[in-house]
Amino acid sequence: MAVRAVVIEADGGSRGNPGPAGYGAVVRDPSTGEVLAERAESIGTATNNVAEYRGLIAGLEAAAELGAAEVDARMDSKLVVEQMCGRWQIKHPGLRPLAARAAALVDRFESVRFSWIPRERNRHADALANAAMDTAAGRPSRSAAGSAGGEPPRAVAGADSPGRAQAREVAARAATRSTGTDPATAKASWEPRPSFTATRLILVRHGETEWTVQHRYAGRADVPLSESGQAQARATATRVAALAPSVAAVLSSPLSRCTATAEAIAAALGDLPVRPQDDWIECDFGDWDGHTFAEVRDRWPGELDAWLASTRVAPPGGESFTEVGQRVDRAMVALREAYPGETVVVVSHVSPIKLALRDALAAGDALLHRLYLDAAGISVLDMWPDGGVAVRSVNDTAHLPVR
């Protein structure tokens, strides 16, 4: 029987870390506390964190089998909760494929909320995990009910405190903006909106660098514009001035390839000041910075697969797209509030621009790997106070010479 919403309580552990390991997961009806499904398995020798992720995955799989649309996932593993929410980097390479697998399952539901609960409120899943660890260790298995101190509790684990609940909210995608509206959920309408009430955002990718031509990951490395990139910046400035003769502000990533492009545009608009904004900086690609895709595939094959599979996974030592999306959301909110009804130019990088367009188009994460943005390409979108969004152009390169 399909259910609309469920609560997942999951746990995992090992005796030795690494050592004999197992996991447990319980799926409950959120209204009655009725146990709808249980999952438990011994997984041989593994670490606590691996077992905890396996417990989460088992719980999500069980919820999917029940046909649930909304999931409240509760664990006493702060690490797993924070990593699944995108607030902590997944530094251990052995956890990245598991996080990617969990993230793929999350995408099957309409909504998933992660929250931390104390171990004493996770007794049923903990008991299942301990029984599985006994099996992995070759010991007589205690019953889940007995090791939990009697019959497994039927009440749903209590809600987090308001402060903790707010801190644990999944910010992975579609975060509600401060206006109270979200492009993905704003009421659809064909009714024309007066263009003068919209905030128009002209998104410009910086001009070409040597790394652009060599197809190298360029995250926080401050790679300057090449000679060709400088020419592209000048051409882009002319195009932007034609598109928007009246501009309230020119914002830019603080990296020089962006500020140089922004300065050319600002000069063409009447010597406006360029205002660097940290939230528009490129994704931090960590250890991959300066490497080509082929080099990354050769040296970090597992990490690359996990990164391609989930926006919650970061490159080694880097930043996930989920984290980039959170600061782009923050930047968009600030822009709406500071420049209502005006035109703003933002010079940024591939990742922040793609994430802004993904949200404006109410698209999925697959867009990030299918949308191509040229150096010095221009995208334009309008944002209305009621949450309405119109994407007017994407990756306009008509102002650049054909190659």
TrEMBL record:
<dbReference type="Pfam" id="PF00300">
    <property type="entry name" value="His_Phos_1"/>
</dbReference>
<dbReference type="InterPro" id="IPR036397">
    <property type="entry name" value="RNaseH_sf"/>
</dbReference>
<dbReference type="GO" id="GO:0005737">
    <property type="term" value="C:cytoplasm"/>
</dbReference>
<feature type="region of interest" description="Disordered">
    <location>
        <begin position="134"/>
        <end position="191"/>
    </location>
</feature>
<feature type="active site" description="Tele-phosphohistidine intermediate">
    <location>
        <position position="206"/>
    </location>
</feature>
<dbReference type="InterPro" id="IPR002156">
    <property type="entry name" value="RNaseH_domain"/>
</dbReference>
<dbReference type="InterPro" id="IPR013078">
    <property type="entry name" value="His_Pase_superF_clade-1"/>
</dbReference>
<protein>
    <submittedName>
        <fullName>Bifunctional RNase H/acid phosphatase</fullName>
    </submittedName>
</protein>
<dbReference type="InterPro" id="IPR029033">
    <property type="entry name" value="His_PPase_superfam"/>
</dbReference>
<dbReference type="GO" id="GO:0003676">
    <property type="term" value="F:nucleic acid binding"/>
</dbReference>
<dbReference type="GO" id="GO:0004523">
    <property type="term" value="F:RNA-DNA hybrid ribonuclease activity"/>
</dbReference>
<feature type="active site" description="Proton donor/acceptor">
    <location>
        <position position="282"/>
    </location>
</feature>
<dbReference type="InterPro" id="IPR014636">
    <property type="entry name" value="RNaseH/PGlycerate_mutase"/>
</dbReference>
<dbReference type="InterPro" id="IPR050275">
    <property type="entry name" value="PGM_Phosphatase"/>
</dbReference>
<feature type="binding site">
    <location>
        <position position="257"/>
    </location>
    <ligand>
        <name>substrate</name>
    </ligand>
</feature>
<feature type="compositionally biased region" description="Low complexity">
    <location>
        <begin position="134"/>
        <end position="155"/>
    </location>
</feature>
<dbReference type="GO" id="GO:0016791">
    <property type="term" value="F:phosphatase activity"/>
</dbReference>
<feature type="active site" description="Proton donor/acceptor; for phosphatase activity">
    <location>
        <position position="282"/>
    </location>
</feature>
<dbReference type="InterPro" id="IPR012337">
    <property type="entry name" value="RNaseH-like_sf"/>
</dbReference>
<feature type="domain" description="RNase H type-1">
    <location>
        <begin position="2"/>
        <end position="142"/>
    </location>
</feature>
<dbReference type="Pfam" id="PF13456">
    <property type="entry name" value="RVT_3"/>
</dbReference>
